[in-house]
Design a protein that fits this description.
276 residues; alpha/beta; Trp Operon Repressor, Chain A; 2 domains; 16% strand; elongated; binds (3-methoxyphenyl)methyl 1~{H}-pyrazole-4-carboxylate
């Protein structure tokens, strides 16, 4: 997979030389090219921003440097009629984008070429996205409901989530089959706690069931813990879970956690039944 990143802070992308992504690059599984946006400015201050039309606070990134930068990145490798699945896709991190999920990570991992446009200031002049959307798929992506100083950290997040899904990038030992949120994971539940040696640390023991050798009881315990965490941290996942996907023990656990079932079988919980 090829990744192009156009940014005013190329140093911010240094982490792409490290760890999983760095190793994938070294192995030739990822071709990462970072481009300095200011290379396509021609004034003595290398200006990339200007005041917003219509007034208001902050600055907006200018069209021309982005247009020349994206065209240059695309020129090397772009083939005629490359709007389809084999061509590049533009990814623009923004708080007003589509939520970045494991499902979207899988979709992006199936594309051969991603071109990232992380913005600074109040964002990029809208005409840039509108222009490239006529040539290729454009993904405006939000990594969460907060505002960053720029999209570079979001590029790192998206890149890591996508890169680990590429064939041969993750080792067998770290296979992603049962990630929380991986399609087909434990019915959209969060993962429960995990433990390793030593068996006692600062007087803290591990749950007995994990050394019982009863695989059935271990699986049940893990599922109960997954319900606990999901109920505490992501009640929305309980509310939208399919009751038909749950067994009697699952329903028992949810009942202990304060959940009730409506006439449609859906789970709901009184606002003041929330645990701890
Ligand atoms: C991404 N969640 C937050 C900030 C405007 C493109 O326009 C803008 C981009 C940014 C940077 O991205 C984020 C972000 N997901 O802040 C403002």
């Amino acid at each position: 997979m090829r990744l192009d990143i156009v940014t005013i802070f190329p140093e911010y992308l240094e982490p792409l030389n490290v760890s999983l992504v760095g190793k994938a690059r070294a192995r030739g599984q990822l071709d990462v090219r970072v481009h300095d946006l200011r290379r396509w400015t021609y004034d003595r201050h290398h200006t990339v921003d200007d005041t917003p039309y219509g007034g208001g606070p902050g600055m907006v990134m200018k069209t021309e440097p982005w247009g020349e930068a994206l065209d240059t990145a695309l020129a090397d490798g772009y083939e005629a009629g490359a709007g389809g699945p084999g061509g590049p896709a533009l990814v623009v991190p923004t708080p007003s984008g589509r939520p970045f999920t494991q499902e979207l990570a899988v979709e992006l991992s199936q594309r051969p070429w991603l071109l990232f446009a992380p913005a600074r200031y109040e964002g990029i002049d809208r005409r840039v996205v509108d222009e490239y959307a006529t040539r290729m798929p454009v993904y405006e992506v939000s990594i969460g409901d907060y505002v960053l100083a720029g999209g570079e950290a979001a590029v790192l997040v998206i890149t890591e989530a996508v890169a680990r899904l590429l064939p041969g990038v993750l080792g067998n030992a770290e296979s992603h089959r049962d990630d929380s949120f991986a399609p087909g994971a434990m019915a959209d539940l969060l993962e429960g706690p995990v433990y390793t040696k030593p068996p006692v640390w600062r007087g803290r023991e591990i749950p007995d069931v994990l050394v019982s050798g009863h695989h059935g009881r271990i699986a049940r315990w893990r599922r109960d813990e997954a319900f606990r965490r999901t109920s505490a941290h992501r009640p929305d996942l309980i509310e939208r879970c399919d009751p038909a996907a749950l067994d009697k023990k699952d329903r028992e656990m949810l009942s202990i956690l304060g959940w009730r079932q409506g006439p449609d079988g859906r789970f709901w919980r009184d606002a003041d039944a929330v645990e701890q």
